[in-house]
Write a structure and sequence with these properties.
Strand content: 15-25%
Strand order of the largest sheet: 1-2-10-7-8-6-4-5
Number of strands: 24
Number of helices: 18
Shape: elongated
Distance between the termini: 55 Å
Length: about 550
Amino acid sequence: MKKQLLTLALCAFMLSATAGNVDYNVIPMPQKIETMKGQPFILSSATPIVYEGTSPEMKQNAAFLADYVAQIIGIRLHQTAKKDKRQASIVLLIDPKIQGREAYRLTVSGKQITIAGNTSAGVFYGIQTLRKSLPIQTTESQISLPAVQITDAPRFGYRGMMLDCARHFFPIGFIKKYIDIMALHNMNVFHWHLTEDQGWRIEIKSLPRLAEVASKRSGTVVGHNSMIDDSIAYGGYYTQEEAREIVEYARQRNITVIPEIDMPGHMLAALAAYPELGCTGGPYEVGHKWGVYKDVLCLGNEKIYTFVQKVIDEICDIFPAKYFHIGGDETPTARWEVCPKCQQLAKEQNIDVKKLQQYFTNRIEKYVNRKGKSIIGWDEILEGDIHPSATIMSWRGVEPGQKAALQGHDVIMTPVSHAYFDYYQSKNTKNEPDAIGGFLPVVKVYEFEPTPPTFSPEAKNHILGVQANLWTEYIPFTTQAEYMVLPRMAALAEVQWTPAERKNFKEFVARSRRMSDLYDLYGYEYARHLWKDKWRPTNAVW
């Protein structure tokens, strides 16, 4: 069968013209879309989904595809491991010749739709592309899909989203919904921010007061750190069983969950439960206000290392990810500077007391390494002499990431300038839900380049990928959280997946309308600034 490779723009026109509502130009845009001569594939309720082999992951992929098709076009397909050669089918298979663990090939002909991947993960992403290509809520009993071959693979291996569940607590059902939204956008890392000054959100069985005390605050500041407190008790935490449930739910969708236990700063909630771990001995109260607190772990107190090791032991048992995020950001040194224990430790280590965090980071990293894992930290940990095996999250711009890469660290780009989704999406904030401030429109997210020309080839090789963060000081509602990430997550998906030379914002906006129709189908709350005809005052509660 003769193939004709077209430019993406021409391909978009022809496929849309011949396919009616079927459109292969999805988000994120695939690397290559080739039209093929031949008859279209007719999808109907008689079409089986055939998965090859006995792999539970492939069987799960078939179940996902069946659910997606039923949700989007109202046709329920049956799944089987046995292929009838006489019947037109959708076939899911592993092809070791495909290069790349997450790469896939989607082929549509009159007789068969084939989704092949090097692994089941690649097949899963091929399924996502087929899912997003289908017409939405059609009344037709069958769908005609034009002949095509799509060859695709991600630009970056790390494609993350963070959710802060410490400032405000979100129920398990919403965490699963957030993971589903990530899967729709081809993301593969859920960074779960679990501890803060304002609340500790994960059960540690050997330290029961973290759940009993540290997970609760007696009130929350009203507005942007005003003088008014609502005096309403607030709290919540995830049991270990619930955390394991989330890990498995994410794994089935090829998403790794990386937990963050922020240390040695942002530990006020833990100090409220165990005051002996602070420099002053307390008493401490779980934080009501937002921002940075002076009270942190007392690094000169040997008890804090026993505490941290107990936390690490239990967290590593729950989360199988190869990474453990230790935070490390925004740690004031004021308490250490006047603490006899910290001063003594600094003297023993022959370092300035203000540099004690590097001692702490290196000591904790060695313990995490003994668990067979590696640490990730925010870029502040670069201010000490740390081992190159630590991975850096560059949030204070791209410069810390470049510095880290040149020092031999792997880097995840998540700069506040382009990846902080707690910023406003519009300059006109009158009709916007409350936010921390700033302005981050979709176009600025889309324009982010994780490996700018100023980076050397050596530095570029250390950039693992890109992540955006949703900090939740001013986001107490699940609908508000959805609104803040959508559709910016669609723009982020193309930064993470699509080669830079294939990105085009004007074309993205056109393709994003179809993605917004999927948001409508699934009942997601999202910002509509990209599409004037879709703008409306939201009915969401925040």
